[in-house]
UniProtKB/TrEMBL annotation:
Organism superkingdom: Archaea
Domain (HTH tetR-type): residue spans on this chain: 2-62
Protein name (record): Transcriptional regulator, TetR family
Membrane spanning stretches: none
Amino acid sequence: MEDVNNRILDAAMRVFSKEGYEGATTKKIAETANVNEVTLFRKFRSKENILKTVISKNQQEAIQTLDSILLMEKSMDIQKCLLDLGNSIMEFMSQRMDFIIMLIAEGRKRDEIGLTLHSFLKKILEHLSEYFTEQITKGKIRNIDPNVAAFSYSSYIFYSNLSAKVCGKERLTDPELEFKNFVDMFTNGILSSSEKEI
């Protein structure tokens, strides 16, 4: 039973990513999942419910990815943790970038999709913000706004994935080196030590 549900949801994500919400049909989703359309409707009732369930499933997977890394690496050096965390989020997003782009486009047309996407992004930001708050409490990070830190960090990751999708192999820099440099600037700032004293 669970296997059929997952097959339908995985197929739906692929079809939505390729065709968009309007272009995706329940028939195409059923064919891609190798189930009949009646089974699809019995389990999910509508195309909109399928989309909401796909978003919810991806939200849970994203939070589990964040949690597993943050739990594993709480005692780790912050730069190392941010590198590992960012690489995991980037991998997670790169596998779903077409779907994310589709959600952004559809979210502008359909309020319910926009609200669901907003809820998904908010949960990720809340988790990152909690991590930064904890590091501030431990004295590992100076007293900054953890929400701004979470937003800045996740914005870079989103833009980097979007850039990879748009530019492909034409990117100006090596993505791995670029991310290491970003984490260095994120954790150490851009001012030289002499400028910091002013």
